[in-house]
Amino acid sequence: MKNVFTIIFLLLISAGLYGYDVEGGRQSGMAGTIIMSTPSAHGLLSCPTNNLFPKQFVIESVANKKYGLADLDQVSILAAYRFKKFTAAFGFSRFGTPDYYTEKNIRAVLSYHKNSITAIMITSGRLIEIGGKYGNLRAASVGLGVSYFKDNYYFGLTIDDINKPKIANNVDGENTKLNLYAEIDGSEKHSVTGRLILEKYEKPLLSFGQFINLTEKNGLFWGLSFNPLKYGGGFEIEYKKFSFVYGVSHHPVLGFSHTVSLSFLVGRRDEVN
Description:
The protein is mainly β. The protein has one domain: monomeric porin ompg (Porin, Beta Barrel). A 14-stranded antiparallel beta barrel has the order 1-2-3-4-5-6-7-8-9-10-11-12-13-14.
């Protein structure tokens, strides 16, 4: 029983790292930052920009092994589709063991593109199932955002949990979270990324990352975040319309996490927008 409560405690800690986010392949290795200049299902689910061409569809499946504990293994599926000036993205993740504790997150994002500006609407939800007689807990969240790019510079702002959702009646609601994203696109050489999370009563969470192009389609990435100090890295290999990502990250208390993902993009990458 002691091991059960330990697992649940670790789950609650890890669940608070990114709110109702659905994790992507690069996320842990790049310390939660995203590449905004090129399309990915996770990027379009976090803070979309005008980077997916009309009628393009991208899907990403993710497996995450957290802190070397099988009970924390997480699987996710993410997808995004562009229709004219709109992009719709959806993500679902699940982790935990049915006998003790499971957590399911969903996130849906609808964005409208007007030249270099993108308006963003966000909905998300969480379902916690506790084994035995404890039943289920659930909450739903709404958010808004905007992104902008000029030349090789990308910026984004999202506001999550505007409605301060409560997972249970006898607990405080989630704090509203302000996410600031940025990227400097170094074209075919590298991209530098950043993220700042601001939340009431919490210290600011600052993260940096970089994606380094080894060839036209393959590269390495790393990430560093503070409060607490975490670091990670990984690589991406692209073949035709498929992309494989491996990422690893280290938490100073909980240890290492490993992530693998496989993405598939339908539609030509060089179509004119």
